[in-house]
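Hey,

Quick one before I head out. I ran the complex with glycyl-adenosine-5'-phosphate overnight. Inputs first:
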Amino acid sequence: MTAKAAVSETERGDTPDDLMERIVNLCKRRGFIFPSAEIYGGFRSTYDYGPLGVNMLRNVKEAWWRSMVQMRDDVVGIDAAILSPGQIWEASGHLSTFTDPLVDCRNCHERWRADKIAGTCPNCGSNNLTEPRAFHLMFKTHAGPVEEDSSVAYLRPETAQGMFVNFLNVLQTTRKKPPFGIAQMGKSFRNEITPQNFVFRTREFEQMEMEYFVPPTEGQKWFDYWTSERMRWYSDLGIPADRLRLRNHEPDELSHYSVATADVEFLFPWGWDELEGIANRTDYDLRAHAERSGEKLEYFDQATGQRYVPHVIEPSAGATRTMMAFLIAAYDEDEVSGDKRALLRLDPRLSPYQVAVLPLSKNDALEPLSREVLDLLRSMCICDYDVTQSIGRRYRRQDEVGTPWCVTVDFDSVSDRAVTVRDRDTTAQVRVPIADLVTEITGRFRR
Ligand code: GAP
């Protein structure tokens, strides 16, 4: 059996909405992403990650952590608190500036971000909109039993500030010196006016951020370095070149802390949109926190006797948004022996299951050996085990969720101790001795 050439979105006659609908349906039907609180009618703009989604999201974050922390000796990780006091957000400028311009349509009463709609209501087409007013995006709560001004706390709207406020702790405990970075991934919260496009913009999401502290004269050099490193990360994990681009911000687009920002953009079904921003934050944050806290957030270079406030280059990506981009880029349809199939051509490192172990049929004779093969493989990668339905249907089910390799245990396997390894993309099958299986699968990861 061989797979026919893939069908492109245009050849399928897909509209952007069709492709999004396919992805959203697949995510719900196969347990990637569920609308949150669905049995209560849903809670708009939050999503729950199901058994396959949680595997894939972990793989996206793992791939980021591996390239940003594990494989480098100049970056260390932290995991700072989500719940945080107002001083952090006063110093960072978020309490005064982290707003979006909100307008109401006087005709249909929908609410919009003024900067996204060019003066016309996307719902009813009316131009009768209110004047924009600043809407604050942070979630505010109270820490402790009494709701008073002194107990006000915030859910972090970015992970970045946790790294700035721990600058001295990390410097003192790791003895790193600039250039060095602190990385963190985790949940952030923004009360978005118009959450939209599935998990592209939600009120609760995950970020993967790194603050890279450099001598003040080296900002541009490291900004250039990190923009190309980050582009490489997306390409290496399978985003095709024609769906990926770098776009420099115009001066009037820059955030309050940035002197230069470049966005890594992905071609979503609705057009180019941001996956990640790489910003030159200068010494803005360390100076602001030093002033507010009274702590000296500086680096003393013993070799030169110089004391300085490092500048910061920040690659800041969304984990949930990036996972969605990987799903969109991987979605494909082709034909196998006259049958149509949908598949996710995911990089094996990102697939929710990396191997599916499939006994040819539900037969007692095959179970012990199939379980043996499963135990052999599951210590090295994420495995599924499926005995239901015909083998052909099980292959399709695995293709649809992006499992790169199916390992089939058949009746010959019991005597020859060999299994069939089937490739998702080509559907090619090879016979492999069980004794060589780990080497075979490990080798395929590297290809
Ligand atoms: N520390 C800088 C910062 O937070 P940002 O551009 O506001 O910069 C960085 O956010 C990344 O976080 C974005 O490129 C995007 O991938 C992700 N992100 C931001 N808001 C999001 C939201 N409401 N839903 C999902 N992802 C979001």
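Residues 158, 160, 190, 192, 201-202, 205, 207, 209, 274-277, 314, 316-318, 320-321 surround glycyl-adenosine-5'-phosphate (CB under 6 Å).

Talk tomorrow,
K.
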